[in-house]
Design brief:
- The protein has 288 residues and is α/β, with parallel strands linked by helices.
- The chain has one domain: 3-Layer(aba) Sandwich (Rossmann fold), CATH 3.40.50.150.
- 39% of the residues lie in helices and 22% in strands.
- Helix 2 crosses helix 4 and helix 3 packs across helix 4.
- The longest helix has 19 residues.
- The structure holds S-adenosylmethionine.
């Protein structure tokens, strides 16, 4: 990686001891254990190279590490982790087997500089992207409500969806891609063939119940970078909390992978930090 401002290479076990004194954060790690272990078992994420974009403290990612994965994190350092890393590294110069590369930088500035490829591109509650989504939803709702019926039909082509039950109160335009360019560029540049794309929206994802058309938008957007959509799940109580999983590869390889994993442990939970975890609904499943 060239010209990056701050890159830390640290032994994973050491990294995760940096937060020991801070009880609530450790609780976070415990709370996400079951959902992340389900992801690991279902999608066979063992001994892989994982890139987490917006990793924060990396509590979910801890469980990937525990299943033998090495980790690369990118984060703007909202949680002020850099000083802890500096302190640890200056205290112990010869750390063996780092397993964690932590890039402290805005992901926008890192895209072109990443040189490795990964088995998993992991985005979890990548907050600015979700704000962007929120903005689009608000703007679109406002525009829609201020437009008369005829214009709505001409401009948005939503007639059918708005008068039938599902999709009533739609908030996402059918001309907007669901994922930001940042998400797609990083994935395109770094996900290897046979790799997984996982994106969780914890609070302001697109509400799928009101926007069922988004499933086909997601499918289309992912297919542009060679990814087949495998699953979309959402919270029954709030379909804006959702989880998307895709596989990069040719059709046959995707079918083979999907067939193999379908006998594995099922996904029944995600978003382990939710105050009220909800039953989950499957909005999409890959068709063989
Ligand atoms: C909810 S946290 C991720 C939590 C993490 N997966 C865990 O389990 O601990 C979202 C993170 O995205 C980071 N982030 C937001 N925008 C970013 C950007 N443009 N580049 C890099 N990181 C960013 C924030 O600093 C924050 O730490």
């Amino acid at each position: 990686m060239k010209d990056l401002l701050k890159i830390f290479e640290i032994n994973c076990e050491k990294y995760y001891t940096l937060f020991k004194s801070n009880e609530p954060f450790i609780l976070d790690r415990k709370n996400v254990e079951l959902p992340i272990k389900q992801l690991i078992s279902h999608f066979e994420i063992k001994n892989k190279h994982v890139l987490s974009i917006g990793a924060g403290r990396g509590h979910e990612e801890y469980w990937f590490y525990k299943s033998g994965c090495d980790l690369t994190f990118i984060d703007t350092d909202e949680f002020n982790i850099a000083p802890l890393l500096e302190e640890q590294l200056s205290a112990e110069k010869n750390l063996t087997d780092p397993m964690l590369t932590y890039i402290i930088e805005d992901a926008h500035k890192v895209i072109e500089k990443l040189e490795n490829i990964y088995d998993l591109c992991y985005f979890s509650s990548f907050v600015p992207d979700e704000v962007y989504r929120e903005d689009i939803q608000k703007e679109y709702e406002g525009q829609y409500q201020n437009t008369n019926l005829l214009l709505r039909i001409i401009r948005y082509g939503l007639f059918k969806l708005h008068i039938t039950g599902r999709g009533r109160g739609r908030t996402w335009p059918n001309y907007k891609k669901p994922f930001s360019d940042l998400v797609m560029k990083i994935t395109k540049n770094t996900l290897k063939d046979g790799g997984l794309f996982i994106l969780q929206s914890y609070y302001a994802g697109i509400p799928i119940e009101r926007n069922p058309h988004v499933v086909s938008l997601v499918k289309k957007q992912l297919s542009r970078v060679g990814i087949s959509l495998l699953h979309i799940y959402y919270f029954k109580e709030n379909s804006g909390v959702n989880l998307t999983i895709g596989y990069k590869g040719k059709k046959n390889a995707t079918r083979e992978f999907f067939r193999r994993i379908s006998k594995n442990v099922k996904i029944t939970r995600f978003h382990g930090r939710a105050v009220n975890p909800s039953e989950i609904v499957k909005a999409y499943q890959f068709k063989m």
